[in-house]
């Protein structure tokens, strides 16, 4: 088998199974593990997969820059943002992450809602500037232009002094084994701090993020309470996430006020700190 054929086969297995195990693939093809690992290194260098111990995972498409991410699953992000906005209750203090889905959340908060939004995203803050009932607390720090969010020690210190009801989190990848991931070390640290300062975390993820992974781990998937997805989310990819302990809430269910779908049944999202 030619090198190009092997690489296409590896990518085909990755799309089909959601992961590649070097040992299994070497046995299937009758090749050495060193050959498979070399192919994986080259494919990773081309930005086509993420190498992990023993094999590879799909690389998160959401690692594109902010402008590029606006073109990824725009209809899903609107639906997820609208559904997330319905989960914010009057009087709550909520963290809203940076990113394109978070902007949609801010955009769909009800006009009569009175609550406090804490965000490290200038884009989210600007979106809420004309919302009379929302008290906006903007966390400062060094601007990470890729995601248009504040990072660094100043942002970490500010987050540590706040207790929020819910953190609406954006990530580039949600994978049962790799966890909740993002493409930058400092951004991962900020997300981890926000999770630690909130009573619960709702992860907002469009389809291209489900089953994908980036290099920097925020936390295991079970550390978040709920994963909010669109009806287009691949059903097979959600199964291992349920097994890992995530409650799955579809955006159409959230709009209708239905409960989150968990491995052991249904549970309503808590609104209390």
Automatic annotation (TrEMBL):
List the PROSITE patterns hit by this protein, alphabetically: HTH_DEOR_1, HTH_DEOR_2
**Alphabetized InterPro entries for the sequence:** Carb_Metab_HTH_regulators, DeoR-like_C, DeoR_HTH, NagB/RpiA_transferase-like, Tscrpt_reg_HTH_DeoR_CS, WH-like_DNA-bd_sf, WH_DNA-bd_sf
GO terms for molecular function, please?
DNA binding; DNA-binding transcription factor activity
Q: Which UniProt keywords apply?
A: DNA-binding, Repressor, Transcription, Transcription regulation
Region annotation (Disordered) maps to: 253-273
Q: Where is the HTH deoR-type domain?
A: 3-58
What name appears for this protein in its UniProt entry? Answer: DeoR/GlpR family transcriptional regulator of sugar metabolism
């Amino acid at each position: 088998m030619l090198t190009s054929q092997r690489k296409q086969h590896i990518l085909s297995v990755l799309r089909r199974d959601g992961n590649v195990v070097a040992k299994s693939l070497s046995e299937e093809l009758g090749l050495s593990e060193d050959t498979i690992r070399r192919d994986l290194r080259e494919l990773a260098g081309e930005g086509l997969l993420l190498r992990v111990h023993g094999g590879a995972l799909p690389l998160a498409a959401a690692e594109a820059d902010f402008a590029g991410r606006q073109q990824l699953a725009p209809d899903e992000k609107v639906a997820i943002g609208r559904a997330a906005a319905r989960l914010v209750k009057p009087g709550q203090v909520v963290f809203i992450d940076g990113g394109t889905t978070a902007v949609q959340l801010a955009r769909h908060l009800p006009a009569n809602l009175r609550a406090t939004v804490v965000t490290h995203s200038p884009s989210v803050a600007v979106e809420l500037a004309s919302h009379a009932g929302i008290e906006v607390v903007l966390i400062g720090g060094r601007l990470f232009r890729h995601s248009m969010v504040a990072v660094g020690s100043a942002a970490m210190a500010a987050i540590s002094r706040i207790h929020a009801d819910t953190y609406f989190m954006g990530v580039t990848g949600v994978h049962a084994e790799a966890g909740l991931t993002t493409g930058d070390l400092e951004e991962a640290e900020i997300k981890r701090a926000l999770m630690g300062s909130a009573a619960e975390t709702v992860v907002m993820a469009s389809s291209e993020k489900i089953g994908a992974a980036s290099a920097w781990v925020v936390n295991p998937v079970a550390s978040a309470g709920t994963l909010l997805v669109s009806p287009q989310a691949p059903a097979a990819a959600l199964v291992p996430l349920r097994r890992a302990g995530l409650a799955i809430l579809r955006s159409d269910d959230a709009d209708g006020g239905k409960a989150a779908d968990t491995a052991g049944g249904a549970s309503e999202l808590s609104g209390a700190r």
